């Protein structure tokens, strides 16, 4: 695999909570590519994102486009797993307000809504949207505020099948020329979506292409039950979603 210039660099990252290590010596870098961040519950996927966003105390180094201090956060867009949706907010208000506070012109929000296929729903209340539409609005919100790196925390959770298809289609388009990290407890996704997989279990267990990581001998280092099949160029993975204790 050709070397891709790094946009996000994480080096020797440690995060402790309650005296216990949540992340230990995590080191990797990401270029303009789509990385699927996987691992069992408690593996540290969300904590990794919070560290990049400077929202938890950590040891180590995290840089975005060479910016390693807290100001790197301005270069990162984030979609949390639990979306906070105002009861009366419209899609436009939800998407544009954070960008407005950063001094971003409204044209950026309009462009973001176009990118996720939500421009025609700009005046609709968020409360009237489906789960998949809310996720697309949240992605537009992150895009509108600007940034070189987009972090998506479990965007496919609680989304119906039709919403998943629409969201996956949007993600395929967004990945072009962007750096995207998407945390997921699922390993079965269209093979053309992710360029790499980062397998976490407090540490980096594996990091590489789908062919390198989606192998039973690799996944069994984390999961107690693993079955992997390759069907028509795509992978189908079945795992028990809890880690070994060692």
Give your account of this protein's structure.
Helices cover 26% and strands 29% of the residues. It is α/β, with parallel strands linked by helices and 246 residues long. A hairpin with a 2-residue loop joins strand 1 and strand 2. Helix 3 crosses helix 4 and helix 4 runs parallel beside helix 5. The two termini are 31 Å apart. The mean pLDDT is 88.
What's the rounded overall pLDDT mean?
88
Please outline the major beta sheet: 6 strands, mixed
Low-pLDDT segments, ≥5 res? none
Number of strands: 11
What is the gyration radius calculated from CA atoms?
A: 18 Å
Question: Which class of secondary structure composition applies to the elements?
Answer: alpha/beta
Query: In what range is the share of β-strand residues?
Result: 25-35%
Share of helix, binned: 25-40%
Strand order of the largest sheet: 5-6-7-3-8-9
H/E element string? EEEHEEHHHEHEEEHHEE
Distance between the termini: 31 Å
- Shape descriptor reads globular
- How many separate helices? 7
Give the helices and strands, then pairings.
Blueprint: E1 8-17, E2 20-30, E3 34-38, H1 45-52, E4 59-64, E5 76-79, H2 91-101, H3 106-115, H4 131-144, E6 149-153, H5 161-174, E7 179-184, E8 196-201, E9 203-208, H6 210-213, H7 216-219, E10 226-231, E11 234-239
Q: Key features?
A:
single chain, 246 residues, alpha/beta, 11 strands, 26% helix, 7 helices, six-stranded mixed β-sheet
């Amino acid at each position: 695999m050709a070397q891709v210039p790094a946009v996000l660099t994480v080096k020797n990252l440690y995060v402790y909570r309650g005296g216990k290590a949540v992340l230990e010596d995590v080191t990797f870098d990401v270029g303009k590519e789509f990385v699927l961040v996987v691992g069992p519950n408690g593996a540290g996927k969300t904590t990794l994102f919070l560290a990049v966003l400077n929202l938890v105390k950590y040891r180590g180094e995290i840089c975005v486009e060479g910016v390693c201090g807290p100001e790197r956060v301005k270069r990162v867009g984030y979609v949390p797993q639990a979306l906070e949706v105002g009861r009366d907010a419209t899609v436009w208000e939800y998407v544009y307000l954070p960008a407005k506070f950063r001094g971003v012109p409204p044209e950026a929000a309009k462009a973001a809504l176009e990118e996720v296929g939500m421009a025609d729903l700009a005046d609709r209340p968020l409360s009237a949207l489906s789960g998949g539409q809310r996720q697309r609005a949240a992605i537009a919100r992150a895009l509108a505020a600007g940034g070189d790196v987009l972090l998506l925390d479990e965007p496919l959770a609680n989304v119906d099948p039709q919403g998943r298809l629409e969201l996956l289609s949007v993600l395929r388009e967004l990945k072009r020329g962007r750096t995207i990290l998407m945390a997921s407890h699922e390993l079965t996704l269209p093979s053309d979506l992710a360029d790499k997989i980062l397998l976490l279990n407090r540490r980096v267990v594996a990091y590489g292409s789908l062919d390198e990581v989606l192998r039973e001998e690799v996944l069994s280092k984390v999961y107690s039950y693993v079955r992997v099949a390759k069907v028509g160029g795509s992978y189908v993975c079945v795992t028990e979603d809890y880690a070994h204790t060692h």
